[in-house]
Amino acid sequence: MEPKPAGDMTPTPSLAEATSAVLRQDFEQYGAWKGQILEALGSLGNWLRREGTLSADARDRLGHSLGLVRDDRLTIAFVGEFSRGKTELINAIFFAGLGRRLLPSTAGRTTMCPTEILWDGADGEPYLRLLPIETRAKKTPIHQLKGEPRNWVRFRLDPAAPLEVQTALKRLTETKRLPLAEAQSLGFSAEDAANADAPGEVGVEVPCWRHALISFPHPLLQQGLVVLDTPGLNALGSEPELTLSTLPSAQAILFVLAADTGVTRSDLEIWERHVQRAKQRTQALTVVLNKIDVLWDDLLDEDEIASEIAKQRASTARTLQLDPKHVFAVSAQKALLARVRGDPALLARSSLEALEEHLSSGLMHNKTALILDHLEIRLGNLVETHRERLSSRIQGLGTQTAELSGLGEKSKGVIGELIRRTRDEQRQHLRSLRQFESSHERLHTEARLSSRILGLQGLDDLIRATQQEMLRKATTRGLSVAMKHLFDEMRRVMHTLTVECERLRRLSVFVYEYFEKHYGFTPVPPKGLGALGFRAELEALYEEAEAYRKSSRMMLAEQRFVVRRFFEVLVARVRRIFERFAADYRDWLDQALEPLHLQIEERKALMEQRLANLSSISRSKSALDGRLHELRHEQEVLARRLAELHEIDARRRLPLGASTARPQSHPLLPTRVDPKG
Ligand SMILES: Nc1nc2c(ncn2[C@@H]2O[C@H](COP(=O)(O)OP(=O)(O)OP(=O)(O)O)[C@@H](O)[C@H]2O)c(=O)[nH]1
Ligand SMILES: [Mg+2]
Fold first, then answer.
1. Three-state SS at 658
2. Which one of 9, 161, 537, 604 has the fewest CB atoms closer than 10 angstroms to its CB?
């Protein structure tokens, strides 16, 4: 058989057909939207290159933004107590087209490890990759292990043979027994042992696999969707990376409950510990009340059944303190059956499609908003600076044209006087330039403290020292105190930073006001630094750390394991917050006075030009007409370039679903200028 080129795996037609039309349309629209944004970024790069202003910094920003949009993935995580039907829902939504229950879903505990379902275009061959549980003993976090194939056990999947795929995927449910000490060294707690010990068996039952990756050529996965199936309660708690980093980075969370059990205590515990926070993290959160088919009683009429379902929905919403419209009552099993058999009436009765619509619109909305925000942070100021520069040049040229036209009738004496006045203005301008330089220096001097903190050396020292100290601690309580101390220190540093950044912001505002008042410069200052956002992120992590510190899992797990996990997962995320803060801060400091600087430079150039105009006119009046003509032409060219920038920038900010009509002039084409004017 001819090997297929990487990434060129056509989706199985039946899969596409059995996927909800709404989901498919939304994803296609999202793909098209991404394409447009990428195109706009390309145009922006070309525009900057033509202007001769594609600096290393601008190139960096553009490259980063392109990467962000191109490699973008949308993750939706299915979370809940075991046996609520998470896996069955995934089967019904995504894989019904294969005519069978693709992922294992049975009564009792089924899914034993977090399972990511995606399309790995770079690999190009559908696969199941399993990470052995023993890798928990290594230091490497899962996201890093993903790039190291030798740590995984790999099976090829053939989408044309669904039965074989189904058999291969049974491995997701595999478990084995380990002696207690060994299980504990892998981070399983005594509590797990108590839960899992069956009478007459020795050791602790643990999952065989720590993480699973399924790459499958499904049309939605090929558009960048990633589905994360998670195991019920216990495993959720014992793989901290899942709760501390994988779940929080998903764009949407689906919390699954079941109508046959109602909201139990352990459902509530998962809700409170792992899901509820999604709201603070601005993740889309949906609650599913699954298995409503258990309420389909043949002895009741449709209205009675509907009112029974409505009652359960309302009481679920009340318990979780949600609006009932966020709770979707469905039957995953009947939906799967309906799609496999091609039974539209049963599909309608399962109510799955309403959930799919809601899911898809929420997901798209969140993700596009996030991308647009990122682009604004990376590119907003850059574009604004260029817009300013062109506008003020156009304005300056207008002033010159008006001045020159008025000069036609003036005598040599008057022109001489104008030359003298312009020279005076030049001298004054020199003063403003010197003052600007000292303001610039002052801002950087005042920024010393925050620049030092954001060099991150101190933070790293603190982290290292705490880690060493914690490894020496003998008691869980000692560990808990050290964790709290570290977080308190990091929060203190964050507080200092926010205060400092606010002070710098005020200083820069003052500089702008001063130059406006004394010299009439009116540039638009760059947007401020979003320090408060970073602070809020740190606070959210602090709360997660508090919850972890106080959890019974932390009390029961082996200490070295607790220390390692705490640093690898939680502290590493704090560090990333500070890293991003540092990058934004450097951007801001670089750009803080740039618009003002540009205006000062522009004014200088204008004055020089005006002097040149005046002295050529004082020599010959016929030079005047030629010069006027040149000025008007230059103005037109600049106006065209500015219009292009406006147009590109509008495309860069297009929200999902907005009109995509393109203007007639193509921004990739260089501006055509008639040499004769
Ligand atoms: N009656 C009914 N049963 C369902 C429905 N959805 C799932 N089930 C059954 O409930 C059992 C558990 O479903 P799973 O999909 O394995 O549940 P899970 O939440 O993935 O459970 P874990 O993988 O153990 O965390 C299976 O026997 C399913 O067939 C439903 O809508 N109605
Ligand atoms: Mg499952």
1. coil
2. 161
The per-residue pLDDT for range 306-348, each reduced to its tens digit, is: 999 999 999 999 999 988 888 999 999 999 999 999 999 999 9
Determine the distance separating the centroid of ligand 1 and the alpha carbon of 347, expressed in angstroms.
17
* Protein residue with its CA nearest to atom 22 in ligand 1: 82
Please state, in angstroms and rounded to a whole number, the distance separating the CA atoms of residues 410 and 418.
Answer: 10
- Closest ligand 1 atom number to CA of residue 109: 24
- Best residue for ligand 1 mutational test, from 101, 110, 270 (most atoms within 8 Å of Cβ): 110
What single-letter amino acid sits at 563?
Answer: V
**Positive or negative: CA dihedral 660, 355, 344, 311:** negative
Both tokens of residue 118?
A: 């995606």
How many Å lie between the centroid of ligand 1 and the Cα of residue 294?
A: 12
Helix (H, G, I), strand (E, B) or coil at 105: coil
CA 90–ligand 2 middle distance (angstroms): 9
Which ligand is closest in space to the CA of residue 105?
A: 1
- State the burial class of residue 202 (Cβ atoms within 10 Å of its Cβ: 0-12, 13-18, 19+): exposed
Answer yes or no: is the C-beta of 84 below 6 A from any ligand 1 atom.
yes
Convert the pLDDT of each residue in 504-521 to its tens digit.
999 999 999 999 999 888
Site to probe by mutation for ligand 1, drawn from 82, 84, 88 as the one with most ligand atoms within 8 Å of Cβ, is 88
CB environment 137-157: b (16+ within 10 A), e (fewer) = eeeeebeebbeeeebbeebeb
In whole angstroms, give the CA distance from residue 492 to residue 494. Answer: 5
State the SS3 of 605-618. HHHHHHHHHHHHHH
Phi (first) and psi of residue 148, to 5 degrees: -120, 85
pTM above 0.85, yes or no: no
